[in-house]
Amino acid sequence: MANYYNYIDDTIGLGASTIARIQATGAEYGVVTSQDITARVITASQFVGPGIGTEGGAGIGLTDLSVTINPAGINSLTYNDVTGVFQFTPASFVGYATEGYVDSAVVGFVTSGIVVGYATEGYVDTQVGLATAGLALETYVDNLVAISTFSGDYNDLSNKPTIPSDTGDLTNSVGFVTSSVVVGYATEGYVDNLVAISTFSGDYGDLTNQPTIPVNLTDLSDVNAGSPSMGQVLKWSGSEWTAAEEGGVYTPYTIWVSPTGDDGYSGTTRAVPKKTIKGAVGVATEGTIIRVSPGTYIEDNPITLPKGVSIEGDNLRNCVVSPANDDDLFYVNDGCYIGDLSFSGSANSNAVVSFDPVGVGTITKSPYIRNCTNFIPDSIGMRIDGSLASGSNGVNGSMVCDSYTQYNQGGIGVTITNNAYAQLVSIFTICCDTAIFTGSGGQCDITNSNSSFGNFGLVSSGVGSTEFIGSVHSSATVNDNEIVVSGVGTSRPYTGQVVYFDELYYNVESITVTNGGSGYSIAPVVTISSPTGPNSIAAQAFATIENGSVTQVTIISSGSNYRLSDSPIVSFSTGTASATVNLSPLYYKVRSATLPSSGITTVTLSRTFDNNIGIGSTVPFSRQSLQIVSSHSFEYIGSGTDILTARPSLGGVTITENEIVKLNGGDIVYTSTDQDGNFKIGDGLTIDQAGGVISGRSFDKSLLSKVTPFILALS
Predict the structure, then answer these.
(1) Residue 180 domain-assigned (yes or no)
(2) Residue 603 and residue 703 in one domain
(3) Closest CA to 560 of 500, 482, 514, 476
(4) Which pLDDT value is given to residue 128?
């Protein structure tokens, strides 16, 4: 690169002899700096030649000079007409690489030509539209020195050498030993001779002295099982495996339980059983059958059964399950089954069988309890709580049982609550506080069953929560039993529901004698105070005396439309006897209803209205607590829960009124026979076999005429 004075000479077109040399300050060859050349001033006194005046003369004009533009940059020359001073500004070389700089940067590559042929950042930006000119300049230089983006990877090289992969690629490939340089190394033949395996293929089949590999169980030294068949189970004797004597065949979906088992066993055969029912349930899945061998099992209760799991005892009397904890024993789910087990243990008020308190979802197949006996005092044989389950069949969960005996002194046989449902066949209760209870809309069917001893037989109380509400669409009058109701949507009223209209009224359900008095020779007249409801009627009753005292007050007419605030009073015409009134809500039972159309349905009720019903009256529909009972046998109900005192021979006294108890609108529709052979068809008709008398408060005379020949035949 020439010194900058030559550059100026060339630029202004003057000879070296006519222009004072201008030395470039700090700009040496091969050095890049941001201040390579500062501006230099050329005065008129420094110019000599034709046409150029001396100092103070007219001087020269800027147009008399010409400036050549170097491709590497733009120079500028200005002239001051007043002072006669030229000012030259050379091009800036900031951002350009010199030979030395490039050589240093790329280490060993030699460049040439100073900055000639290099593009500025601005030029590159303009030509290629790049945002960063530095990148373009770097790439340009890289291309020149051919190291721009080499990755350092051998595979990215061009003209790569060929690397030999076998001896055939070598020029002297014949033979293995080529010179004495391998002296001291063993040849292939030498090694083969020493180890004598010169041609071993590596295949196990080519070995000599091969070991014997067992193929069958009988090939093992500690197996003494004859010829075991597929699925047979072997049993370890302590020194050898022998065929199991019994139960040795694997049965899918079956888990065995035995007192001699171990919960660490698989339980898949009778020979390797689980020790506890809970241990078996822990590995059971839907469809599993748990078979329980005879024995007593003290279980870490509660035991929660998965859906569709069955527990089957080998023998009812000999398969005994006892709870270890003060809690429920079994929690059942959809499709579960428990059969042929006895339950025993210390007194507690928990349930033997119940839904899981956390809820079980929808019940599509009722849990089934069959051929079991409950001996746990104070316990509940089955607790069926509809709040813990739901159903797609109009009820909140259900259970069924067959031949389930409850000898749980002081306990409850079965409770059905919160709109749940049960079918109870051959359920026998002995010394229960309450044999069967339905409440809060719980309902059940009871067939071919028995309740013996205990305090109460069948008890039904109240109604469930309101299921939907309608409004009277057309008015109705006294003695009507049909009414049109609107606003029910698509909900069709059904048998088993009850309704009332606007206000819930009451009638007299029963009268309890609190003081029988004394000295009665004839029964006193009974008077019951009048109700205050619309079109109300006072209840009527009569007294029965024994040994000079009032022992019973029997309802002739329950009256209608009492309010709770009426607090009806019972009065006796003579003597000191006293009694209290028990009121019952006056619901109307739904007998049938038409399919709703535009939310309107015609409802037929089981009895006529006690008062006129106006348009717009509110009609809440609720599920009634209800028991439908056929052929039920009562024996000594009311005699107590202790079998040692309940029997008549031991002083037990029967309380007939405790056989059927209906409270707060609950109902029981029944036929029954007691210990004396008295046959009842509901509350309205009793046939006393011993006395040959038919009694009741509501039956047609025609019925009497039809039954009379039968009575005569009995006599």
Answers:
(1) no
(2) no
(3) 500
(4) 53
